[in-house]
């Protein structure tokens, strides 16, 4: 199964929350598991696929829709597509979810203050000074996911821990296979039977 | 470390005081035999993993013998490769210390490690239970047994009796082989035959059944002989720890928590389907895994999950309130010893994978998570008679003064590492040794 079925792993969250970092790291792990991986990073997409789009609601929705369409097409051809985009509006994210067979939403959660302190691109400082309009979290809203498949708290977890949680979620959903999966089906039956004989699984 | 799986501290004290375990009694003169708190839940996979990582399940990720898959609600069985924290032998290896580990539950498949490891329960294959692989032929030649055959032992006194002694004999033989022929700084061996005896015959023994009492005494006499041999065989100056992962007591009733959830409206199954988590109705708000683990049926995490995140807290609050009234209909007593919320029980990167709340076991009431149970309360299953306890495991450290306060399984890895003079920051537990130990340890 590993490497055969495509899916879309959508990292959403404020700027500076850690979406790109996590997407790259998870992508590396998935590649090692045999998946064909493509990371669609929001900044790169805006420079290429979505040149000319601004940060109005309409443009943001168009940005997300385009990313979602490309991701869906890649996923339909067996690619594990990792999207790292703020994607601040729930409706737009849900439309992508509805258009893709296998969609996993990862909410990369960090408090605004933490993101602003990190400020990896210097944008928060500019936004708070009023130099960058329509900045998510400062002058534009971010609609938190209500039911993401995974939530990682990058203010309290290590990157390794967050990566592992995402991978665990994918493994437990059957989207990817743990390379160390141990039990054959007959062994699994054996394990179940031994536990049952001692009164477990009751 | 010698583990006696499931052997209660209170029982051990009584038996040694009665003069029936002379070697253990002699050892216990040189230190203190104290109760040890088990894990939550108090099952061997979780408990021994807590022992060998120094973390609670929030750190090591093993919350029970089974978990529930999110994509189908089917059960799956975690194994050693799902342990998310380093084992004490790996931490010791960073300082060049070599370990031998025999029959420690939760260590299948055998990992590549610095030393020797033979997996314990649940290990379906001896071939994948041995590191290094070169040891396998020697174990096979001695007829080494990973476990008693619980199928045939359950319900057959004679088969249980024969299997217990035979399995213990091969365990002893393997310990002797490895103790004498391997270089080691840390040696861990666990006797699990004790737990098997207790699962099947604890009730009978406690009720004074002559055959059960006699078997208990003969079997533990053999364990005591093994301990006596071990204590003599150890090189001078070896620190010796004897412990268990949980205790045992009489079971009066099974308590089927999923049946209770159905009665209380938390759980239902697809109309016409056989009751099972695979057919859970998405409108269900809570399901249970044994023993005593409760999970909110979250939307998004599982395809048949229906509780939005914003409603989880309210569901948990209602569940906790209802659990406060889960009582034996005959006696009116609570069938558990209290509810523990996830954030209070579990600490670490895997905590979010744990149950939203657990109930602590209460002696007499075995918590069961089977989805198909027709009623909440039932007598113990046929062939079984005994249950784990969570606060009556035992701990003995030869020649040591132990610190005061409750001691838990997570405290043993830090203790071992301290005795090995290996630094290991970041463990949840802390050494059981009192500050002045260097003055009293031999």
Quick one: biggest sheet of chain B?
8 strands, mixed
Large-scale geometry of chain B: globular
What's the arrangement of strands in the largest beta sheet of chain A?
2-3-1-4-5
Order of helices and strands of chain A: EHEHHEHEHHEHH
| CATH class value of the largest domain in chain B | Alpha Beta
Form type of chain A:
elongated
Radius of gyration of chain A: 19 Å
Binned, the helix content of chain A reads 40-55%
Q: Are there runs of chain A of 5+ residues with pLDDT below 50, and where?
A: none
CATH fold assignment of the largest domain in chain B: Alkaline Phosphatase, subunit A
Largest interface pair:
A-B, 34 and 46 residues
Classify the beta-strand content of chain B into a percent band: 15-25%
Strand tally of chain A is 5
What percent strand of chain A? 5-15%
Radius of gyration of chain B: 22 Å
Helix/sheet category of chain A? alpha/beta
Helix content of chain B: 25-40%
């Amino acid at each position: 199964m590993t490497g055969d079925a495509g899916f879309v792993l959508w990292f959403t969250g404020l700027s500076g929350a850690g979406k790109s970092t996590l997407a790259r790291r998870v992508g590396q792990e998935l590649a090692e598991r045999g998946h064909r991986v493509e990371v669609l990073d929001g900044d790169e997409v805006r420079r290429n696929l979505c040149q000319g789009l601004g940060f109005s609601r309409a443009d943001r929705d168009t940005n997300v829709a385009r990313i979602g369409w490309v991701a869906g097409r890649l996923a339909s051809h067996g690619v594990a597509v990792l999207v790292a985009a703020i994607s601040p509006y729930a409706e737009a994210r849900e439309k992508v979810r509805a258009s893709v067979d296998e969609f996993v939403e990862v909410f990369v959660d960090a408090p605004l203050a933490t993101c602003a302190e990190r400020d990896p691109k210097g944008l928060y400082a500019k936004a708070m000074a009023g130099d960058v309009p329509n900045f998510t979290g400062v002058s534009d809203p971010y609609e938190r996911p209500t039911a993401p498949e995974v939530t990682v708290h990058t203010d309290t977890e290590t990157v390794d821990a967050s990566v592992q949680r995402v991978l665990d979620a994918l493994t437990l959903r059957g989207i990817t296979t743990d390379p160390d999966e141990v039990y054959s089906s007959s062994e699994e039956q054996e394990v179940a039977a031994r536990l049952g004989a001692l009164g477990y699984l009751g | 470390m010698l583990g006696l799986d499931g052997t209660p501290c209170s029982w051990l004290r009584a038996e040694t005081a009665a003069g029936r375990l002379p070697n253990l009694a002699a050892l216990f003169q040189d230190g203190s035999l104290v109760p040890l708190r088990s894990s939550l839940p108090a099952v061997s996979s979780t408990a021994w993993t807590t022992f060998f990582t120094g973390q609670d399940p929030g750190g090591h990720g093993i919350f029970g013998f089974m978990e529930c898959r999110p994509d189908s609600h089917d059960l799956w069985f975690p194994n050693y490769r799902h342990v998310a924290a380093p084992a004490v032998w790996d931490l010791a290896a960073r300082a060049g210390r070599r370990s031998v580990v025999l029959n420690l539950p939760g260590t299948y498949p055998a990992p590549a490690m610095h030393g020797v490891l033979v997996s314990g329960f649940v290990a379906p294959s001896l071939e994948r239970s041995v590191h290094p692989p070169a040891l396998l032929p020697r174990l096979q030649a001695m007829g080494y047994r990973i476990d008693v055959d619980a199928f045939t032992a359950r319900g057959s006194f004679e088969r249980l009796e024969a299997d217990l002694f035979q399995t213990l004999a091969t365990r002893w033989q393997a310990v002797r082989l490895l103790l004498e022929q391997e270089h080691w700084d840390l040696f861990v061996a666990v006797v699990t035959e004790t737990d098997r005896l207790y699962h099947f015959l604890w009730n009978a023994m406690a009720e004074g059944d002559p055959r059960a009492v006699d078997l208990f005494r003969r079997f533990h006499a053999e364990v005591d002989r093994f301990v006596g041999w071990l204590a003599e065989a150890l090189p001078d100056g070896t620190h010796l720890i004897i412990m268990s992962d949980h205790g045992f007591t009489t079971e009066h009733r099974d308590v089927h928590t999923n049946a209770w959830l159905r009665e209380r409206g938390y759980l239902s199954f697809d109309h016409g389907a056989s009751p099972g988590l695979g057919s859970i109705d998405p409108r269900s708000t809570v399901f249970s895994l044994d023993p005593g683990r409760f999970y909110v049926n979250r939307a998004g995490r599982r395809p048949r999950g229906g509780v939005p995140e914003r409603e989880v807290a309210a569901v948990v609050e209602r569940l906790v309130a209802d659990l406060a009234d889960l009582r034996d209909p005959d006696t009116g007593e609570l069938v558990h010893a209290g509810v523990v919320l996830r954030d209070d029980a579990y600490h670490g990167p895997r905590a979010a994978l744990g149950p939203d709340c657990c109930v602590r076991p209460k002696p007499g009431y075995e918590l069961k998570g089977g989805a198909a149970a027709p009623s909440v309360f039932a007598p113990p299953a046929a062939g079984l008679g005994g249950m784990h306890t969570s606060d009556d495991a035992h701990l003995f450290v030869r020649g040591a003064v132990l610190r005061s306060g409750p001691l838990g399984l997570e405290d043993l890895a830090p203790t071992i590492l301290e005795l090995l003079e290996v630094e290991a920051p970041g463990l949840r537990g802390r050494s059981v040794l009192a500050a002045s130990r260097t003055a009293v340890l031999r």
